[in-house]
What we know:
The complex is a heterotrimer.
Chain A: H1 3-8, E1 19-30, E2 33-45, E3 50-54, H2 61-68, E4 77-85, E5 88-89, H3 95-101, E6 106-109, H4 113-116, H5 123-135, H6 139-152, H7 158-161, H8 171-183, E7 189-193, H9 201-218, E8 221-226, H10 229-235, E9 238-243, E10 246-252, H11 253-258, H12 263-270, H13 310-314, E11 320-322, E12 325-327, H14 333-340
Parallel strand pairs in A: 3-8, 3-9, 6-7, 7-8
Antiparallel strand pairs in A: 1-2, 1-4, 4-5, 9-10, 10-12, 11-12
Helix pairs in contact in A: 5-6, 6-8, 8-9
Chain B: H1 2-29, H2 33-37, H3 44-53, H4 60-72, H5 86-121, H6 126-140, H7 143-157, E1 170-172, E2 175-177, H8 182-215, H9 218-225, H10 230-268, H11 273-283, H12 286-314, H13 316-327
Helix pairs in contact in B: 1-4, 1-12, 5-6, 5-8, 5-10, 6-8, 7-8, 7-10, 8-10, 10-11, 10-12, 11-12
Chain C: H1 11-23, H2 26-33, H3 35-52, H4 54-57, H5 98-134, H6 136-150, H7 154-168, H8 174-206, H9 209-217, H10 221-258, H11 269-277, H12 286-313
Helix pairs in contact in C: 3-5, 3-12, 5-6, 5-8, 5-10, 5-11, 5-12, 6-8, 7-8, 8-10, 10-11, 10-12, 11-12
Amino acid sequence: xxxxxxLAMTSITDAEALLRVEHLRVEVPTRRGALVAIDDVxxxxxxxEVLGVVGESGAGKSLTGAAIIGLLEPPLQITGGSIxxxxxxxxxxxxxxxxxxxxxxxxxxxxxxxxxxxPLYTIGHQLVETLRTHLGMSSGEAHARALSxxxxxxxxxxxxxxNHYPHQxxxxxxxxxxxxxxLAANPRLIIADEPTTALDVSIQAQIIALLKRLAxxxxxxxxxxxxxxxxxxxxxxxxxxxxxxxIVEIGTVRTVIDRPSHPYTIGLMSSIPRIEGRRGRLQQIxxxxxxxxxIPSGCPFNPRCHEAFDRCHHERPELMSARxxxxxxxxxxxxxxxxxx
Amino acid sequence: MLAYIIQRLLQSVLVMLVVAFIAFALFxxxxxxxxxxxxxxxxxxxxxxxxxxxxxxxxxVVQVARFIGHAAQGDxxxxxxxxxxxxxxxxxxxxxxxxxxxxAAFLALAxxxxxxxxxxxxxxxxxxxxxxAISLIGVSLPxxxxxxxxxxxxxxxxxxxxxxGRGTVVHIGWWTTGFLTADGWRAIILxxxxxxxxxxxxxxxxxRAEMIEVLRADYIxxxxxxxxxxxxxxFGHALKNTLVPxxxxxxxxxxxxxxxAVITETVxxxxxxxxxxxxxxxxxxxxxxxxxxxxVGFFFVLINLxxxxxxxxxxxxxxxxxxxAAGG
Amino acid sequence: MxxxxxxxxxxxxxRAARWRRFVENDLLWSFSRSPVTIAAAxxxxxxxxxxxxxxxxxxxxxxxxxxxSLLDASDPPAWLKDGDWTYPLGTDNQxxxxxxxxxxxxxxxxxxxxxxxxxxxxxxxxxxxxAGWRGGIADTLIMRVADVQLSFxxxxxxxxxxxxxxxxLPHDMQGAISLYVLVSAIALSYWVHFARTVRGSTMVExxxxxxxxxxxxxxxxxxxxxxxxxxxxIGPVLVIATINLATAILTEATLSFLGVGLPPTxxxxxxxxxxxxxxxxxxxxxxxxxxxxxxxxxxxSVNLLGDWLRDVFNPKLR
Lengths: 341, 328, 318
């Protein structure tokens, strides 16, 4: 393999991957037949790595996270592929086994901190409950650990505040509590679904910094789902771009942002206004992402793509090596042939 | 906290005044009280004298004040039909209605809440579907029809239970109770079931609907994502959040049991306040009607007040926000 | 994605597209998928249809004294011993055919129920619109009254109004006006639900831009309210109306059973049950049970239809 390929390599050997998703397929049955919400999605996350997943609303980002922890809302269901955590398959586990993984091995952070916390219980109660469920502590031990967790996520006066109710905290503080809850049982992976979207811009930076620091300190991997490219640039090592339920490009953050290969990613990056550099006209991508019931055949992006040619309309591209990243685009088919030769 | 209690108390007093006023209006303006009390051959002069004696010529305000004053002491005058003090009649009938209502309320809660929880958690099991189907029937069947059916099955056909009356009662002070005799228990079963059925189905459907809503909430999703046991999620989190809003409506529903007792008492000839009221309506016995109105109004206002205070105690958002606003 | 038709498409194609949209419409689809709802609708149609056609299809006229004979009194239903197929469901103690009395009685029950709902709808929607649109004192007043009324069960209120009317009106007029009194009493007990919902929706819509725009232009408030606000609240109002219909029928039956509803000379289903109740203990069960079954079926099917309507209009369940 050439050096270039090794640098562009984005998948890791079995022994190293913490989470491995292969050919995941999620469908929802409707009266008009099954709609495919996630179509043949594959990626890996290494221990301690932050993988970002970006895309427009409806691209399937949140569903991927939900599928991994087994909390897809019926009638959505996994109809194909596999999910492996630390070498162990978790996509077909019975609920009882899955429950032990949730919280203990995989933590989750949702978007809206206000509705994520039960308004009728103190945050101390909710923390202690989670700790005792997974770590079997006595209530005294759990209480002490809860206090240290709160201090770690930056909540001052933890001794008083542990007995407060969620509505007594501000938005940013609440999200810190949510992060504390997600980290409580020391999971190896955290799925963060739009963790900063519901917060003020000034608070966003704090929360992002907090997440980064915690991930580094605990060695936790993060699957960061968001539509905000700026957050990804700040936080992630690698990023996957999703479109219509598929990954269209995946690579290191710097390459995807600065030197994207897939036309959709290129379009996305040009449509982000930059402060430095030449101020040209802001690019737009014509059209809109297709609805689940109307996904085009071949490459799903082909109706909106300026570079589309005949093959794009008929055949669906897999992820393939493309310049500096992996992209699902026929433009790079020749490059792959060349590299294999 | 204190401010809230005082505010609610004032509101309650206001509503009671309105109710009393309506009762008074009934009392004095519906028909002519004099005509209702005396025979046809009483002379005009005698009527005029009676009118003066009863204070019916006094100003409006004075009459209202007098009425309210008497009402507060439980004096509602004489029943047209029975020529006895209304207060005495009410005291006789109240135990029967209260015992029946309390038993019915207990049944409705003890069965309705668990059934509601079960059908919310196990939405698609056939047991749930069966319970829901029966609940629909419970809401659609008029209470009196249920009573009649129960009488037909258990009293007429099987002969196990009596179809009317209270059975043997025991006197304790001014209270009469049917709970101390086997006879009394046999007599109260059918009416209690009849009375509770409507409330039971309502409570069940309410608890179910509320719990399904709650189970969809983000904090439940987060609780599951944290790996909490089903038991903790359903009974620790979901149940608590369900019961808070359900308390209000349930409380009010239970209040309406007292009103629905009217129907049940008629079907089973149960000698309570409800039967008394119906007889009063048919006979146009205004004092009794007015007294019943004030009494029921009082019960309702009391229940509303208790429920509001309960809500305050149970939901920390109300409690602490107010304290924060007050304390700063 | 919208289907694109070529410019100048023939009118037939457009009509075909509209028909297809109607058939594939969620409303009809959810209706046809729910066998319970279909059964409920069928039952409702049968009962209502039979009731409406009562004068035409009733085998006897139970109120024509000439055709009623005491010799046929208290006959059991046709399939039992002593039964007779001229009186398929038996006769009551005066010799009236139970089937015919049920048909006429259902008619009356429906009449009272529908009129009461109509009246309370008009009253409630109007007051709700006024309260929501004008706000201020009108709103506070109307809502206070509603609150006080809501804390009492409707049946008590209906009983009270009915009882008062009875005492106020002279005795001989009572029979004639009892129908109007009954309808009014029930209507006055249930207007609150309409008023509250309509008020809520009105307040929400009132602040939207298109309403503001209309006001700025100078469109008369009445036109805004009727033309714009009203269509937006029709959905929930319809659901409430259907459920209230079931409740109104139930309330009327209860009032009649208690003796303060329709009199035995013009009996509704409730009155029939009341009259028949006296003979239950002596074994002539058919006089009250058959009207009871019909009443139960009617209320049940209307309730089911109301449930289905509520699911259809509930955006959260979609």
